[in-house]
Amino acid sequence: MLLFAPAKVNLGLHVLFKREDGYHELETCMIPVPWFDVIEILYDTAFTFEQLGMSIPGSDSSNLCVRAYELMRDRFGIGPVKIILKKNIPMGAGLGGGSSDAAYVLKGLSDFFELNIDVTELEKLAAELGSDCPFFIQAQPQLAYGRGELLSPVDLDLSGYYIKLINPGIHISTPMAYAGVQFNCGEHKLVDVLKLPVSTWKDKLTNDFETHIFNQFPALALLKQELYAEGAIYAAMSGSGSTLFGLFQEEPQVSIPEKYTGCIGRLTY
Length: 269
Known about the structure:
By secondary structure, the chain is an alpha+beta fold. The chain is 27% helix and 30% strand. It folds into two domains: 2-153, Ribosomal Protein S5, domain 2, CATH 3.30.230; 162-266, Alpha-Beta Plaits.
């Protein structure tokens, strides 16, 4: 079984307040984008995990693909498999690659062993692995609240737009991102802005992490300016960074600089 786990970007990201449980209350809109990790699931006599492509820090036992398999094994008694992960989506980039991998392993194992687990149950399982994981069960545009695990549909039509993603290789840890964030005062409600034409999003659809992260890493602010200079109708940082993306009405003509990673693709939803 071969699976293609997409990255995501955030259209707006509001950090509302710090909760009593230590997490932050968020509201955002997440959309899948055409930048993929590749996962292969095969029968085997014992569980094995192999990782190719970009290196991932930490031991295999901490990898979300392995944790997803162990969750399914413990909950449903599935047999051993070999999981091969080809890592293309950079880590610490605001793209949710690890969360996507975990969700696609859950979905893949459900199909592989014919468990017929419904979407709601898969989302609950995914939430045990990470806040962004439930989004990737359906991998369609959704509003996210709470820690990012509370999802609701959103009426959004970006079909025909092109997206350009650039990751400069700057790793921004979650503690670093939250250390300087200013809580959102609610000047523009996210759901209301998303109903407006994309051409009006530039000054209204904001990511609350941008201000202090751009202060620490001016190169990211410059990349955003360059996307607008190339003709993006909207540009922003995804999540807590450091990936920048732009939405274009026509296919971008400027390629990704060799010193960066990224992709250019067309949206279909």
